[in-house]
């Protein structure tokens, strides 16, 4: 796909994709889980895409398909999964293509899909947001959240903060959505998530690959950044809720994103953790008699290797191993 000219991107974004900010929305009534008595969440730890990321949208979704099994109810991608730190100010130009691909993916997988991307809903002269959309299995947008706590990278790219907390009210759970620095801003953000059943944090949380790079003044080595990701759960699980975190992996300029996708129960115990590669972490929740998840029932799920992958060319995206007891 060729890079969209600025005026074309403005027209598409304004005419087709200018969704107003929604503090909360409902999913499809009568949604039937893929398996009786449980909801399965897939956290897709995708790789950084640096060179012309606007041409890689479809390939990222195709990668995910290789690791999914068709029994997932909710599929989540990291913050900026379809963008690079090096093109944040321009990535909004191909937001329509991201949303279009996401719509098709949600329909094809018959699942809820949570995707993040920069967006200018009012066109080239409007504010730039770091935006997460929740797509229903029919492809409709049922919830939208714009990052409120802006990091240095966001400010450098001239992002504007959102004004409402992220709460996706789905038939089986209220999912409270946090985007990267939101998760490190517990005192300011905690009040808006009291009625969440699950807390979900989308990250593009970097360390630095080159300690002499200018970015090293603001970001720690990658090993420390991964620990920061894990530590982000402590305040939030203090609210008595499970905490899921999904991050990218790979090198983006002088930044090194070390993955670290994980799920923890409401006590802060990690029940599933990613490998240090592109992978998908699977987490299950049991459903109560009312059709809502039981937050205390969270557990990690180990998935089998793809039978067509082979050992030598194992397709990335296969199941992550649950954390050891």
| Number of structurally distinct domains | 1
User: How large a portion of the residues is in β-strands, by DSSP E?
Assistant: 25-35%
Secondary-structure element order, N to C: HEEHEHEEEHEEHEEHHEEEEEEE
Please count the helical segments: 7
Distance between the termini: 46 Å
Shape: globular
What is the CATH T-level topology? Nitrilase/N-carbamoyl-D-aminoacid amidohydrolase
Strand order in the largest sheet: 1-7-8-9-11-14-15
Structural class: alpha/beta
CATH superfamily, called what?
Carbon-nitrogen hydrolase
Query: Regions with pLDDT < 50 over 5+ consecutive residues?
Result: 6-17, 22-26, 305-325
Mean pLDDT: 83
Number of strands: 17
Output the radius of gyration: 18 Å
| Largest sheet descriptor | 7 strands, mixed
User: Which percent bin holds the helix content?
Assistant: 10-25%
Q: At the first level of CATH, what is the class?
A: Alpha Beta
CATH-scheme architecture: 4-Layer Sandwich
